[in-house]
């Protein structure tokens, strides 16, 4: 028995499924999740001391690679002064100003402790601001596990076959209208019928929780126009895309201005952080200025702020995002070329430093239905072969993959060599 197997058996006695977040349990791909002991740069090391080139990056935050010295130093230094005060600090102003400078549509913002909190709060705010109950989301998009949003969701909810979770009263779920991603006609139809009851559209501007699906041309522009026409709030959930598809996120990449934005992952540099913000007029509906309540004991936590600020400061330097995007393209196109070489039907999608590959003969994957009809069995076999090769990818085919600045050209070449060997055996 490996140490990971021992730990997994032990964990299952005391933690449901042995994990604190479902996808970690390897249920989709089978086998034993690797228990991780430490991580450095592009590598993670499991409890059996095996090293893996990591393309999960803690599901997005580790855009600089693991254990980056600037983040580590910021955390250690800030911790000397105390871990949490539950009172405002200057660091929070610095953080808010830094985020606003990078994402100018966030005229005012508030820090929270997770992506789930960010989207949950943004939805409540949009409802309070518009005085409307209904919200629009898209099938296969995941926005965290708040009740209104766990309806036809992606990511682990989709992987585990519970896209709409029990425990969410029908009376809540009925206010969530779930439409097809990249289908603007459907959005227009629904708004023509119910537009004056719809508080907001929440969308992943590049979907990353049903593998990686970029918006088709005109989709995001269309959502912007519809929201403007009907007085609904457009929320870009940039928890995943923020600071990743470009420095200013998908809204900068596609040049569309949402009313509200939610952030997470990179903004915390690996600490538990999220944020939501947008038009000052809407944000001023939040307590204590306005009537919509939202709060958090650990919100704006100094250690988390220090880690996040250090991360944002590093990624602003030089041509960080261009270089990361170029490496991502090399890897994505490299995988596709190897699939062609081995006659394996495959499509790749990538935007900035986010990519996904689909075992399918469909030329361009743009919809949820196409994404879920890919060859899962082939993915699962490939997954385990890659693990053996020392390459760690997301343990489910419905997840996007991430590169970090620590993934050197050499490591990408090594990864492609491993892919070549695995495809030969597939
Ligand atoms: N929104 C998106 C787009 C996400 O990808 C995620 C998490 N993967 C969330 C929200 C929820 O964030 P958290 O897991 O930090 O609650």
UniProtKB/TrEMBL annotation:
It is an enzyme of class 5 (isomerase). Its cofactor is pyridoxal 5'-phosphate. SUPFAM superfamilies: PLP-dependent transferases. InterPro entries: 4pyrrol_synth_GluAld_NH2Trfase, Aminotrans_3, Aminotrans_3_PPA_site, PyrdxlP-dep_Trfase, PyrdxlP-dep_Trfase_major, PyrdxlP-dep_Trfase_small. GO terms for molecular function: glutamate-1-semialdehyde 2,1-aminomutase activity; pyridoxal phosphate binding; transaminase activity. It catalyses: (S)-4-amino-5-oxopentanoate = 5-aminolevulinate. Its main location: cytoplasm. GO terms for cellular component: cytoplasm. Pfam families: Aminotran_3. Homodimer. PANTHER family: GLUTAMATE-1-SEMIALDEHYDE 2,1-AMINOMUTASE, GLUTAMATE-1-SEMIALDEHYDE 2,1-AMINOMUTASE 1, CHLOROPLASTIC-RELATED. This is Glutamate-1-semialdehyde 2,1-aminomutase. It comes from Thalassotalea agarivorans (Thalassomonas agarivorans).
